[in-house]
UniProtKB/TrEMBL annotation:
Signal peptide: none
GO molecular function, one term: oxidoreductase activity
Record key words, sorted: Oxidoreductase
InterPro entries assigned: NAD(P)-bd_dom_sf, ODC_Mu_crystall, ODC_N
Protein name: Delta(1)-pyrroline-2-carboxylate reductase
Amino acid sequence: MPSPGPGPLSLVPFVSVADMMALVNGIGAERFLVELAAYIEADFRRWHMFEKTPRLATHSKEGVIELMPTSDGVEFGFKFVNGHPLNTRDGRQTVTAFGMLANVRDGYPVLLSEMTILTALRTAATSALAAKYLAPKGSRTMAVIGNGAQCEFQVLAIRALCGIDTVRLYDIDARATEKAAHNLAGSGISVVACASSQEAVEQADIITTCTADKRNATILTDNMIGSGVHINAIGGDCPGKTELHRDILLRSDIFVEYEPQTRGEGEIQQLDPGHAVTELWQVIAGQAAGRRDAGQITIFDSVGFAIEDFSALRCVRDQLARIGQPSKLDLLADPDDPRDLFGMLRRAAQTAGAAE
């Protein structure tokens, strides 16, 4: 009797949290961020090849659960992700995620991966990629407002791609700033803990806002932003959640990932629907201007888009050999006869009965 156990097509490579940490630590966090940014940049250059749709989101008073799919016609990828700002009160992550990459040809998954760590990495890599094209040349100082789980990834990515050497930190919770400063100790980056957002942005060339509160907030007021800076606004990522005062937007050039999604989720939800924005891929592909002069204020209104997650999954898939032998999950039914799925179920029952 054929075995009802896993067949050759049953097993799907699975990158666990432990695998992901081993992969990133083995390569080095900054090196991994550079490689990941290269994958995102390459996919942005072939933007027209992807299916694009705003993510499917289920909102509640506690947070949001989202599904983010895309395909380049050869492979299909999706990410399941949540955003629950109050989770930290119970010792839980604000954001958790997992994702899958599959062949379009036969629909079979080729990779299942944790994406809680990977989302933090891809968000930082995308921010750094935007800063590479939009930040003032020779930027040396960045400010990070909101020093939670994303903070250190942002700093390391922008150091790796843009060459900053100083970061100014502020969070309403001083313990978060202490945590970030501790984690960045020994990195070679000069860390300055600040007493306010105003103090943090002083002398900063690049400003990153990554707060988690799910409400219309004003993290940066108009008087805090002088000419020539670049802002990565990454905390506002759903309806009703913003970080920048509207007046900052009105005197800045705004860049987004996918305009139809950002209109409802990003900082530009505060503006008229026809307000001009530029999609970042156009700058990367040389189809639109990025930073034009030293006095220009640029904003990357980032909400996260599925193509970035697709790029991240591709990057990890191509690095599997560095993990050694990743786990494999018995995820797919693989009957001896593909038309006899019930027979596979029946044989399993018979085998179980014979073993009793």
